[in-house]
Amino acid sequence: MKMILLRKFRVLILMVFLIACSMHIMIDLLPKLERHGSTGCSCSHTPSEEPKSWGKQGWPNKHSLRILQDFSNEPSSNVSSHSLERVPVAGDKSQAFRRLDHQGQRGDRKRQFIQDAGVTKNVPAKGSRLSALYDHPLYKTSLPPLTDEDTLFNVNTDIRFDPKAAEDQAWAGESNIDEFSPTGELTADSYPNWLRFHIGINRYELYSRHNPVIDALLKDLATQRITSVAMKSGGTQLKLIMTFQNYGQALFKPMKQTREQETPPDFFYFSDFERHNAEIAAFHLDKILDFRRVPPVAGRLVNMTKEIRDVTRDKKLWRTFFISPANNVCFYGECSYYCSTEHALCGKPDQIEGSLAAFLPDLALAKRKTWRNPWRRSYHKRKKAEWEVDPDYCEEVKQTPPYDSGTRLLDIMDMTIFDFLMGNMDRHHYETFEKFGNETFIIHLDNGRGFGKHSHDELSILVPLTQCCRVRKSTHLRLQLLAKEEYKLSVLMAESLVRDRLSPILIQPHLDAMDRRLRQVLNVLSDCIEKEGYSYVVEDDLQGYQGTDHAHNGPRRR
Ligand SMILES: *[C@@H]1O[C@H](CO)[C@@H](O)[C@H](O)[C@H]1NC(C)=O
Ligand SMILES: *[C@@H]1O[C@H](CO)[C@@H](O)[C@H](O)[C@H]1NC(C)=O
Ligand SMILES: *[C@@H]1O[C@H](CO)[C@@H](O)[C@H](O)[C@H]1NC(C)=O
Predict the structure, then answer these.
(1) Sequence-separated (6 or more) residues with CB below 8 Å from residue 407
(2) 388: domain range?
(3) Which residues are catalytic?
(4) Is residue 96 included in any domain, yes or no?
(5) From the CA of 78, how far away is ligand 1's center (Å)?
(6) Is 454 within 8 Å of 512 (Cβ atoms)?
């Protein structure tokens, strides 16, 4: 009897315990379920919150700005654009544009401001060769008038396609704008510099000469607080995407070797290190050549602890940090080449040099087309490319669109000269902005494999020029100018590079090599002229666009 009672009692206790347990679980779960429910409808809250943050910060909120930028700065890799925090594209795109539009209804005026502002400001010191160069008439040619088809962003037309644009202007009402502009009139001045750089891009150039925005952007790259860091996926070597306080972004390439180290002779160009100083020097060289086809790059000394490890949300990157036996901070990240303890990037003791290249506009806003370089190298250790075995290869190229018309072939020649001067063999692809079709410049992206050897001139880089014997007259004249003793490319480069925080960027032998290579380019061209005649070799692109001091004003030839 007692036993039965005891058993019943035990069963009872067990039941009570079970009930208590399930009650606990229910109570625990309920709030979570509720919270879940509320995030589901948070979308309806955001629009009313946005104007507030807009008013406080002075520019559109994080998400809409982010979409204006591009996460992939390299041909054929748009992987990273998707791996990073992204919001639905269509909605944000139109919002970003609406905000742009709202700030300055007069897109044309804005554009003019950005292009003209430099004329008055930023007069360099007297006695500098660089300012003498930029004062030369060859550096004063003007662009044809720009229409909406010639600018990357024409804010107003894009708005017209959005029926909601008009009513939505109400949410960012006048009051907010008045807060930071008493007149209610906002100029492009209030945009962050990276955005002003994007708005200035047109069919003919990434940025205009003497543009004060570019100098300001270079300063931003070197000084703005870094708010987050992510690894760029898809590359062979480690690169970091850095986001700044003002939502600007840049591609960081860390220093991997000293400036004195030359590429080992047995290295294939495609396994060569990417050099941070080459990225910086390439930007300056491209500007001195007056191409203006390299996005702005600045050097920066980065605190690896504070500005990389502590701000990254990427666990994989974070985990690769360690302290070396010499007590330096090191990390190696993840990539397909050189990302291991043996190839770690180490600071001194916690500072590392690197290049920061400003991002181009996001691919969602400004698509780019990737083209194979007709003179691309065979990336096979034994196989040769067609151009290496066929001396008449250029004839074939000239008959193939888009090289059969327009300026594309001449652009390839410009790029060839640019690459030869810095010894860059790694130009397998190039990119253009899709909006401009085939009649636009080539973007000179990714120059980290230049300036590897100063004691060797790689003549194979010049093959497109020797095979085609074509050049723009403006390029030819500028090259002749830069070869003169009173200008001298190496001295101009040295003067330009002093402005970078990591100066000296190039050791003297690399500067001297550029003078030597420039003479070689001019020799190739004079041989061409002797063989084929001046009018065949030199394409006159200056007719009618000699600047304002030239009376003649005929149609531009392309
Ligand atoms: C970029 O991504 C899009 C969409 O994911 C894809 O269709 C396209 O082929 C990619 N482009 C390149 C060059 O990888
Ligand atoms: C780098 O940042 C760390 C952490 O904030 C700080 O302790 C260190 O002093 C900084 N290093 C230099 C050289 O400024
Ligand atoms: C641009 O070039 C491509 C060749 O890659 C060609 O198919 C296309 O028709 C060209 N477009 C124009 C407008 O000429």
Answers:
(1) 439, 441, 472, 541, 558
(2) 129-539
(3) 426
(4) no
(5) 6
(6) yes
Residue 115 resides in a domain: no
Q: For residues 521 and 532, what is the distance between their CA atoms, to the nearest angstrom?
A: 16
Beta bridge partners of 69: 361
**Nearest Cα residue to 464 out of 502, 510, 522, 411:** 411
Query: Ligand 3 in contact with 404 (CB < 6 A)?
Result: no
Q: What is the Cβ-side half-sphere exposure of residue 274, based on CA atoms within 13 angstroms?
A: 23
Q: Would you say the CB of residue 351 lies under 6 angstroms from ligand 2? A: yes
Per the annotation, binding residues for Mn(2+) are 274, 446
Atom 14 (ligand 3) nearest CA: 438
| Confidence check: pLDDT of 506 > 50 | yes
Ligand 3 within 6 A of CB of 401? yes
Q: 77: Cβ below 6 Å to ligand 2?
A: no
In a domain, 3, yes or no: no
- CA–centroid distance, 351 to ligand 2, in Å, is 8
Place of tokens 């992987």: 79
- The residue whose C-alpha atom lies closest to atom 14 belonging to ligand 1 is 76
Give Cα 88 to chain centroid, integer Å.
Answer: 23
Q: How many domains, in total, are found in the chain? A: 1
Nearest-CA residue for atom 7 of ligand 3: 401
CA 436/CA 432 separation, integer angstroms: 8
- Name which residue sits closest to atom 3 of ligand 1, judged by CA: 78
Distance 79 CA to ligand 1 centre (A): 8
Burial class for 260, CB neighbours closer than 10 Å (0-12, 13-18, 19+): exposed
278 residue type, one letter: A
User: 453-477: per-residue pLDDT in tens?
Assistant: 999 999 999 999 999 999 999 999 9
Per-residue pLDDT of 95-149, as tens digits, reads 444 444 444 444 444 444 444 443 333 344 457 999 999 999 999 999 999 999 9
168 pLDDT higher than 80: no
Query: Is residue 13 domain-resident?
Result: no
Across the range 45-65, mean pLDDT stands at 42
pTM (2 decimals)?
A: 0.74
- Name the average pLDDT for the chain: 79
